[in-house]
Amino acid sequence: MSPPNKRPMCAACLRPQSTCICRWAAPVSAVAEVLILQHPMEVANAKNSARLLHLCLPGSRLESGECFDPARLDALLAGPRRSLLLYPDTPGDASMGTAPAPPFDPAWAGDPSALRLVVLDATWRKSRKMLYLNPALQRLPRLPLRSMPASHYLIRKAHAPDQLSTLEATAYALAQLEDDEKKFAPLITAFDGFVAQQQGQAHARRAALAADLGSPGDTQDQPWLGSPG
What pTM was computed for the model? Predict the structure, then answer.
Protein backbone atom coordinates (compact mmCIF):
# COMPACT_ATOMS: atom_id res chain seq x y z
CA MET A 1 0.00 0.00 0.00
CA SER A 2 1.49 3.33 -1.07
CA PRO A 3 1.86 6.09 1.58
CA PRO A 4 -0.66 8.92 1.49
CA ASN A 5 0.29 11.99 -0.50
CA LYS A 6 1.89 14.70 1.61
CA ARG A 7 1.54 18.38 0.94
CA PRO A 8 4.79 19.80 -0.47
CA MET A 9 6.60 21.80 2.18
CA CYS A 10 8.62 24.99 1.87
CA ALA A 11 12.21 24.31 2.90
CA ALA A 12 12.66 27.84 4.28
CA CYS A 13 9.59 28.49 6.43
CA LEU A 14 8.78 24.78 6.99
CA ARG A 15 5.12 25.26 6.11
CA PRO A 16 3.04 23.73 3.33
CA GLN A 17 3.75 25.60 0.11
CA SER A 18 0.09 26.58 -0.07
CA THR A 19 0.52 28.58 3.17
CA CYS A 20 4.16 29.61 2.72
CA ILE A 21 5.09 32.86 4.50
CA CYS A 22 8.42 33.51 2.75
CA ARG A 23 6.96 36.32 0.64
CA TRP A 24 6.68 38.42 3.80
CA ALA A 25 10.33 38.03 4.76
CA ALA A 26 12.07 41.42 4.77
CA PRO A 27 15.77 40.87 5.54
CA VAL A 28 17.23 43.47 7.89
CA SER A 29 20.82 43.32 9.10
CA ALA A 30 20.82 43.85 12.86
CA VAL A 31 24.01 44.91 14.63
CA ALA A 32 23.21 42.86 17.73
CA GLU A 33 23.13 39.08 17.45
CA VAL A 34 19.74 37.42 17.99
CA LEU A 35 19.21 33.99 19.55
CA ILE A 36 15.62 32.72 19.55
CA LEU A 37 14.80 29.89 21.96
CA GLN A 38 11.49 28.45 20.82
CA HIS A 39 9.27 26.23 22.95
CA PRO A 40 8.54 22.94 21.10
CA MET A 41 4.77 23.60 21.21
CA GLU A 42 5.29 26.70 19.06
CA VAL A 43 7.24 25.01 16.28
CA ALA A 44 4.19 23.81 14.32
CA ASN A 45 1.85 26.62 15.36
CA ALA A 46 0.70 28.39 12.19
CA LYS A 47 0.15 31.63 14.11
CA ASN A 48 3.66 31.72 15.53
CA SER A 49 5.89 34.61 14.42
CA ALA A 50 9.37 33.32 15.33
CA ARG A 51 10.06 31.61 12.00
CA LEU A 52 9.25 34.82 10.10
CA LEU A 53 11.49 36.74 12.49
CA HIS A 54 14.30 34.26 11.83
CA LEU A 55 13.83 34.70 8.06
CA CYS A 56 13.95 38.47 8.45
CA LEU A 57 17.19 38.53 10.48
CA PRO A 58 20.14 37.04 8.59
CA GLY A 59 22.56 35.53 11.06
CA SER A 60 19.94 34.95 13.73
CA ARG A 61 19.74 31.54 15.36
CA LEU A 62 16.55 29.60 16.13
CA GLU A 63 16.76 26.72 18.61
CA SER A 64 13.88 24.61 19.89
CA GLY A 65 13.61 23.22 23.40
CA GLU A 66 12.12 23.60 26.85
CA CYS A 67 14.79 22.32 29.22
CA PHE A 68 18.08 22.71 27.35
CA ASP A 69 21.18 20.68 28.05
CA PRO A 70 23.24 23.02 30.30
CA ALA A 71 26.43 22.58 28.29
CA ARG A 72 24.60 23.25 25.04
CA LEU A 73 22.90 26.35 26.42
CA ASP A 74 26.18 27.63 27.87
CA ALA A 75 27.74 27.25 24.42
CA LEU A 76 24.90 29.20 22.81
CA LEU A 77 25.35 32.00 25.35
CA ALA A 78 29.15 32.02 25.31
CA GLY A 79 31.13 35.20 24.53
CA PRO A 80 32.55 37.36 23.23
CA ARG A 81 29.11 39.03 23.03
CA ARG A 82 27.20 39.88 26.20
CA SER A 83 23.84 38.06 26.31
CA LEU A 84 20.73 40.01 27.33
CA LEU A 85 17.38 38.34 27.91
CA LEU A 86 14.42 40.01 26.23
CA TYR A 87 11.97 39.44 29.04
CA PRO A 88 9.97 41.72 31.34
CA ASP A 89 10.82 42.18 34.98
CA THR A 90 8.82 39.62 36.96
CA PRO A 91 8.60 40.47 40.68
CA GLY A 92 7.20 37.00 41.37
CA ASP A 93 10.46 35.26 40.49
CA ALA A 94 11.21 34.67 44.18
CA SER A 95 8.11 32.47 44.47
CA MET A 96 9.61 30.23 41.77
CA GLY A 97 12.80 29.84 43.76
CA THR A 98 14.86 31.84 41.27
CA ALA A 99 17.20 34.70 42.06
CA PRO A 100 16.52 38.22 40.75
CA ALA A 101 18.04 38.92 37.34
CA PRO A 102 21.31 40.90 37.34
CA PRO A 103 20.82 44.61 36.66
CA PHE A 104 20.97 45.98 33.13
CA ASP A 105 23.67 48.60 32.61
CA PRO A 106 22.38 51.28 30.16
CA ALA A 107 25.98 51.79 29.01
CA TRP A 108 25.83 48.40 27.26
CA ALA A 109 23.34 49.80 24.76
CA GLY A 110 26.07 52.12 23.49
CA ASP A 111 27.65 49.23 21.57
CA PRO A 112 24.97 46.87 20.22
CA SER A 113 27.62 45.02 18.20
CA ALA A 114 28.84 43.60 21.52
CA LEU A 115 25.41 42.27 22.48
CA ARG A 116 23.39 39.11 21.92
CA LEU A 117 19.62 39.40 22.35
CA VAL A 118 18.13 36.18 23.73
CA VAL A 119 14.42 35.81 22.96
CA LEU A 120 12.04 33.25 24.47
CA ASP A 121 9.35 32.27 21.97
CA ALA A 122 6.50 30.74 23.97
CA THR A 123 3.23 31.52 25.68
CA TRP A 124 3.63 33.46 28.90
CA ARG A 125 3.14 30.32 31.02
CA LYS A 126 5.57 28.25 28.96
CA SER A 127 8.18 31.03 28.88
CA ARG A 128 8.07 31.16 32.68
CA LYS A 129 8.67 27.40 32.74
CA MET A 130 11.60 27.76 30.32
CA LEU A 131 13.09 30.39 32.60
CA TYR A 132 12.61 28.17 35.65
CA LEU A 133 14.12 25.07 34.00
CA ASN A 134 17.20 26.83 32.60
CA PRO A 135 19.29 28.52 35.33
CA ALA A 136 21.63 30.01 32.71
CA LEU A 137 18.72 32.16 31.50
CA GLN A 138 18.02 33.32 35.04
CA ARG A 139 21.55 34.69 35.25
CA LEU A 140 21.15 36.97 32.23
CA PRO A 141 20.48 40.70 32.60
CA ARG A 142 17.14 41.66 31.07
CA LEU A 143 16.66 44.33 28.44
CA PRO A 144 13.78 46.63 29.42
CA LEU A 145 11.55 47.84 26.58
CA ARG A 146 10.36 51.44 26.64
CA SER A 147 7.10 52.99 25.36
CA MET A 148 5.92 50.08 23.25
CA PRO A 149 3.01 50.61 20.83
CA ALA A 150 -0.06 48.40 20.85
CA SER A 151 0.42 44.94 19.37
CA HIS A 152 -0.60 44.18 15.78
CA TYR A 153 -1.04 40.51 16.73
CA LEU A 154 -4.73 40.26 15.88
CA ILE A 155 -4.71 36.49 15.41
CA ARG A 156 -3.72 35.57 18.98
CA LYS A 157 -5.15 36.84 22.22
CA ALA A 158 -2.92 38.35 24.90
CA HIS A 159 -3.49 38.40 28.64
CA ALA A 160 -2.48 42.06 28.89
CA PRO A 161 -2.54 45.04 26.49
CA ASP A 162 1.25 45.48 26.59
CA GLN A 163 2.06 41.92 25.49
CA LEU A 164 3.60 41.63 22.04
CA SER A 165 4.41 38.89 19.58
CA THR A 166 7.95 37.54 19.49
CA LEU A 167 8.62 39.34 16.22
CA GLU A 168 7.25 42.67 17.42
CA ALA A 169 9.11 42.63 20.73
CA THR A 170 12.39 41.73 19.02
CA ALA A 171 11.97 44.38 16.31
CA TYR A 172 11.29 47.08 18.89
CA ALA A 173 14.19 45.92 21.07
CA LEU A 174 16.62 46.06 18.15
CA ALA A 175 15.32 49.47 17.13
CA GLN A 176 15.83 50.64 20.71
CA LEU A 177 19.39 49.29 20.84
CA GLU A 178 20.35 50.91 17.54
CA ASP A 179 18.16 53.99 18.09
CA ASP A 180 16.74 53.49 14.59
CA GLU A 181 13.00 52.78 14.32
CA LYS A 182 12.99 53.28 10.55
CA LYS A 183 15.55 50.52 9.99
CA PHE A 184 13.39 47.89 11.66
CA ALA A 185 10.00 49.13 10.43
CA PRO A 186 10.10 46.57 7.54
CA LEU A 187 9.86 43.79 10.16
CA ILE A 188 6.58 45.19 11.44
CA THR A 189 5.32 45.60 7.87
CA ALA A 190 6.25 41.96 7.19
CA PHE A 191 4.42 40.95 10.35
CA ASP A 192 1.29 42.84 9.24
CA GLY A 193 1.33 40.92 5.96
CA PHE A 194 1.75 37.63 7.81
CA VAL A 195 -1.18 38.44 10.12
CA ALA A 196 -3.38 39.43 7.16
CA GLN A 197 -2.54 36.12 5.45
CA GLN A 198 -3.51 34.15 8.55
CA GLN A 199 -6.78 36.09 8.83
CA GLY A 200 -7.59 35.43 5.18
CA GLN A 201 -6.94 31.72 5.57
CA ALA A 202 -9.11 31.58 8.68
CA HIS A 203 -11.91 33.36 6.83
CA ALA A 204 -11.64 30.90 3.93
CA ARG A 205 -11.86 27.95 6.34
CA ARG A 206 -14.95 29.41 8.00
CA ALA A 207 -16.57 30.01 4.63
CA ALA A 208 -15.83 26.46 3.51
CA LEU A 209 -17.21 25.05 6.76
CA ALA A 210 -20.35 27.15 6.45
CA ALA A 211 -20.81 25.91 2.90
CA ASP A 212 -20.42 22.30 4.02
CA LEU A 213 -22.97 22.81 6.79
CA GLY A 214 -25.34 24.65 4.52
CA SER A 215 -25.61 27.50 7.02
CA PRO A 216 -23.35 30.39 8.01
CA GLY A 217 -23.60 29.53 11.70
CA ASP A 218 -21.09 30.75 14.22
CA THR A 219 -17.69 29.49 13.09
CA GLN A 220 -15.44 32.03 14.77
CA ASP A 221 -12.06 30.72 15.85
CA GLN A 222 -11.77 29.74 19.47
CA PRO A 223 -9.88 32.43 21.43
CA TRP A 224 -6.30 31.56 22.12
CA LEU A 225 -5.82 31.50 25.87
CA GLY A 226 -2.11 32.20 26.25
CA SER A 227 0.14 35.18 25.73
CA PRO A 228 1.45 35.86 22.24
CA GLY A 229 4.45 33.86 21.07
Answer: 0.82
